[in-house]
Amino acid sequence: MGLNCGIVGLPNVGKSTIFNALTSAPAEAANYPFCTIDPNVGVVEVPDKRMDEICKRIPPQKTIPAMVEFVDIAGLVKGASKGEGLGNQFLGHIRQVGALIHVVRCFSDDDIVHVHGKIDPKGDIETINMELALADLETVDKRLQNIDKMIKSQDKKVSNQAKFTKPILLKLKDSLEEGKLARSVDFNKEEIEALHDLHLITLKKVLYACNVDEDTIHEDNDFVKQVREIAEAEGSAVSKICGKIESEIAGLDTKEERAEFLESVGIEHSGLVVLIKAGYDLLDLKTYFTAGEKEVRAWTFQSGSKAPQAAAVIHTDFEKGFIKAEVYHYEDLIEHGTEQKVKEAGKLRIEGKEYVVKDGDIMHFRFNV
């Protein structure tokens, strides 16, 4: 399991500029709509200082950090759900990601045209959300067309599931027709699971990324305040990022140069670090490590996972044949210096199937398949 985010937004809000800066991947950025026809995918390392500290104490032959995948999806426009601006193609790409980073233009620049002729974060967000809601409505309508046939199925499992799902779909249809997003509907866990195979776009969690100018990176302007109000009302997250600053950071060669630049503009972390942390928080993701002479590796898992489920992140066989896990924490290694001294201090534990894995655990799994 890794962090997988689709970057969406109207044309000319800075999506491809930000994508290029975050991933250093060659997505074309231009001052006109639809310069990104196919989704560009960039896979980048998750910055984690703990990896460096573990490697100092357990020197490996190689290190493998956790990874995050950014998918730059071409700018949507009003009518995308009906195919405007190649909308259907783009909406299909959005369905494949785990979460959405919705880039909202929160800066003024006469040299960069806005697709609607003015800077209006509230209107921009409403346009995108409406198109996504209409796309989901079409998906729900298609399922409802077949649901009665499924209810009549001779397969009791199929029939019972269809009976359970139909009122959920009708409830969702009513909400989407009113322009409400699926994530705003009060569903319980079982109802959400019943909708899982529909891959609803508006059920995905969203991080609003306010693309700001250099001045606004330190203090919110009125555009950013509008986005924060919208996000608060729907329970979404907000981060600020300056595409121009991120482009300059991406052009620097060394960590030292980047650190000096960040200090010069008064920023503690790059936009990449901020977005990744926000994405992990949004999806409630954590990291555990495996460490040995061959490799030190970071693994991303869902918060609250028990040891067998966390082991499945490495390989499904690890979960099937799970026996025990040898566990100690990153802080134990920092305190005692070596794995051997961690053991001597009695900090290495043997945990079973009910152990809830913690962020920063260093683990070795015992399994039999």
Brief sketch in words of this structure:
With 369 residues, the protein is α/β, with parallel strands linked by helices. 41% of the residues lie in helices and 20% in strands.
What does this structure look like?
The longest helix has 31 residues, at 121-151. The two termini are 22 Å apart. A 6-stranded mixed sheet has the order 2-4-1-5-6-7, with helices on both faces. It contains 14 helices and 12 strands. The chain is flat. Helix 1 (15-23) runs parallel beside helix 8 and helix 4 (121-151) runs antiparallel to helix 5 (156-177). Helix content is 41%, strand content 20%. Helix 7 links the parallel strand 6 (206-211) and strand 7. It is α/β, with parallel strands linked by helices and 369 residues long. The model is unreliable at 25-37 (pLDDT under 50).
Overview features:
369 residues, alpha/beta, six-stranded mixed beta sheet, three-stranded mixed beta sheet, 14 helices, 41% helix, 20% strand, flat
Distance between the termini: 22 Å
Shape: flat
What is the SS-derived class?
Answer: alpha/beta
Describe the sheet with the most strands. Answer: 6 strands, mixed
Provide the spatial order of strands within the biggest beta sheet: 2-4-1-5-6-7
| Unreliably modeled segments | 25-37
**Gyration radius from CA atoms, angstroms:** 23 Å
Quantity of strands, as a count = 12
> pLDDT average, as an integer?
87
* Proportion of residues in helical segments: 40-55%
What proportion of the residues form beta strands (DSSP E)? 15-25%
| Tally of separate helices | 14
User: What pattern of helices and strands is seen along the backbone?
Assistant: EHEHEEHEHHHEHEHHHEEHHEHHEE
